[in-house]
Design a protein that fits this description.
Radius of gyration: 30 Å
Number of strands: 31
Largest sheet: 9 strands, mixed
InterPro entries: HET (IPR010730)
Protein name: Heterokaryon incompatibility protein-domain-containing protein
Organism: Apiosordaria backusii
Number of helices: 14
Length: about 650
């Protein structure tokens, strides 16, 4: 049985000794090397080589040695008859995403003559009561999340954030409460409180999935009952009941839940409250994120969660134990960057801004309870938490009250904000909405943040300063037969006019930046949008028009990916050019289209533009985008004003 002998605290971070055999040898086809030499770095000395027979590793693996099983798996991936070298050691986790505190890693690096260096990296964790816990900081998951201990650990994360996170905004304990909140002082009978826009104090918010189930809501007919008598917890759906219990357990009084704090039968109240949702989540003390619940009837506190299954469990020998007796276990987990579990909340449209806007959140996902703020994402109880790739707003746009505007942003910060917006679109557009009219309103709170920090004008999903580049979005991934909604919700030139995932082409801007004086663009003459409600400047639109001045050429659709344009050159010859195209809606691809270049390189083969369909009114609508490597077809054609709805 292989032992892992960890360094004592006095030895330094990078030292490790082990009986694991490293490698330098030739092996027969299908077998492990006959001789293995492993280099084990040690902070106390230059290093040591240990030699062992490959057969010994193979035999130990057969007998169940977890370490040798993993080493055997790695070695089998090496080319046969190569001399192979393996190094093993400890190092600090290099984390480019910066959202998860650095943890110690165990690495296995494999090198061979005909194979570039490869890395097999593992994160280590152990139980809090294990002797190895003195040396290994990461713990097993906390899976019971309804206990007083789980709430204590959550409070510990909140306290650390409030006390030491320089990039996290401290809560304003005198902020104005939303118009209505639930008083959770008695979790068995929470009451609806009307604040009249004058009451102040901290409050929590809930982010959750409604689901298809009917649930209790506040309406004009029962609001008086909810205010005067409260709502018995037995009447609340489990998800909201759990949120009330969490609020009370965290020693907080007020909770905002849209189902109970918005009059669900009043369109006027919905418009007013939904237009302020950005502020509600942004100024909350904390958001409870019920990530794993697919509907309100499921709840999130008492759902079963599985303990992590390690790749290997290594016997641990305490370096301070002179007898050398194995007294503990260290668990290995494969190291990888992480976007979080694919929980139901990650598929809903409204919940993206409910995750990006709050200053801090408790995420009840299908693995454990995680604390999420503008500095880090960690599992409670120091449980192992993979480096996070979760989307976040940049610091400039992430503060509760953005103070920087475009004139104060450096070029680097402006680019960071721009890339963040494009990432928001990529993350938001695949998500689903119960009401197709909510495509723009469900992102309005995030848009408000970007508008504050950039000072730019928002145009139904696009930005005036980068309008030409924003026009070149493309639908990607599996395309359903009907991409466009049944009723108008955005102009055809906006990504909000289609269902499904949209890809803003960031590399077009990067390419254009290198064109210099060869960059050519269409000219924007005018662009306007008409809002459904003036109090919701970033919400639903009911009309819009874009006017551009550009070259336009008629084309014929050859298939789902090709458009052909033809023209007569100066010598009277018929010319044709085939262009690649990506259509927004496969169900309604017209036969005859118009090709309009938006950006191109006068000196090289780079053309990107819109595919339009002419309407009976003489105006046009977007049906896709095209790209071409030839500019011959543009010569000799005059520009004209094109109106796109």
């Amino acid at each position: 049985m292989t032992l892992i002998n960890l360094p004592s605290p006095q030895q330094g971070k990078d030292s490790i000794t082990t009986s694991v055999p490293p490698l330098r040898s030739t092996r027969e086809r299908g077998h492990l090397p006959t001789q293995i030499s492993v280099y084990l770095p040690n902070a106390a000395r230059a290093g040591v080589y240990l030699d062992a027979l490959g057969a010994a590793v193979k035999e130990a693996a057969k007998q169940g040695c977890a370490w040798c099983l993993e080493l055997s798996r790695i070695l089998k991936e090496c080319p046969c008859n190569d001399e192979v070298a393996v190094s093993v050691g400890f190092e600090q986790d290099f984390e480019p995403y910066q959202w998860t505190p650095l943890q110690r890693e165990l690495y296995i690096r494999v090198r061979s003559e005909n194979r570039p260096k490869s890395y097999n990296t593992y994160r280590l964790y152990t139980a809090a009561t294990d002797p190895a816990a003195v040396y290994i900081a990461a713990r097993e998951r906390i899976t019971n999340l309804s206990t007083p201990e789980s709430f204590r650990l959550a409070q510990e994360c909140i306290g650390k954030c409030l006390g030491s996170h320089a990039n996290c905004q401290k809560p304003d304990l005198s902020t104005l409460l939303p118009d209505r909140v639930l008083d959770c002082s008695d979790p068995n009978n929470p009451k609806l409180v009307l604040t009249n826009g004058t009451q102040r104090g901290p409050y929590l918010t809930l982010s959750y999935v409604w689901g298809d189930d009917e649930q209790l809501t506040t309406t004009t007919s029962n609001i008086d009952q909810h205010v005067s008598h409260g709502i018995p917890s037995t009447m609340l759906p489990p998800t909201i009941r759990d949120a009330v219990f969490v609020t009370h357990s965290l020693k907080q009084q007020f909770l905002w839940v849209d189902a109970l704090c918005i009059l669900q039968d009043s369109e006027e109240d919905k418009v007013r409250q939904l237009s302020g949702m950005g502020r509600i989540y942004r100024e909350s003390y904390l958001t409870i994120n019920a990530a794993m619940a697919a509907s309100t009837k499921e709840g999130f506190l008492r759902q079963p969660r599985k303990q992590r299954i390690p790749i290997a469990r290594l016997p641990f020998c305490d370096p301070n134990d002179p007898t050398g007796v194995t007294t503990g276990v260290v668990c290995m987990a494969k190291a990888y960057a992480y976007r979080g579990p694919a929980d139901p909340i990650e598929y809903r449209g409204w919940t993206l801004q409910e995750k990006l806007l709050p200053p801090r959140s408790l995420i009840y996902d299908s693995e454990t309870l995680k604390y999420y703020c503008h500095t880090e994402i960690v599992s409670i109880g120091q449980a192992l938490c993979e480096p996070s790739m979760l989307l976040r707003l940049p610091q400039a746009a992430g503060s509760p009250v953005p103070t920087q505007r475009s004139g104060k942003l450096s070029a680097e910060k402006k680019m960071e904000v721009r890339h963040a917006w494009q990432s928001v679109i990529t993350s938001y557009t695949p998500r689903q909405l119960s009401d197709e009219r909510d495509k723009l309103p469900a992102l309005a709170g995030v848009v408000e943040q970007f508008a504050h920090v950039t000072g730019d004008v928002y145009l139904a999903g696009l930005w005036k300063e980068n309008l030409l580049f924003d026009l070149l979005w493309e639908v990607f991934g599996p395309k359903p037969n009907d991409q466009r909604p049944r009723r108008y919700r955005a102009p055809s030139w906006s990504w909000a006019s289609v269902d499904g995932a949209v890809w803003p082409k960031r590399w077009y801007e990067q390419n254009a930046a290198m064109m210099g004086e060869n960059l050519r663009k269409a000219e924007v003459i005018d662009c306007w949008v008409k809002l459904a409600a003036d109090e919701a400047p970033f919400g639903e639109v009911i009309d819009a028009l874009l006017s551009i001045k550009a070259v336009m050429k008629k084309g014929v659709v050859l298939d789902d990916w090709t458009v052909v344009v033809s023209w007569i050159d100066n010598l009277g010859n018929l010319k044709e050019e085939m262009m690649w195209a990506s259509f927004d809606d496969r169900k309604s691809i017209p036969g005859a289209v118009a090709i309009v270049p938006i950006i191109w390189n006068a000196g090289k083969r780079f053309f990107r533009g819109l595919v339009l369909e002419k309407l009976s009114t003489g105006r046009f609508k977007r049906v896709g985008v095209f790209w071409s490597c030839s500019h011959e077809w543009m010569h000799g054609f005059a520009t004209e004003v094109i109106e796109i709805i």
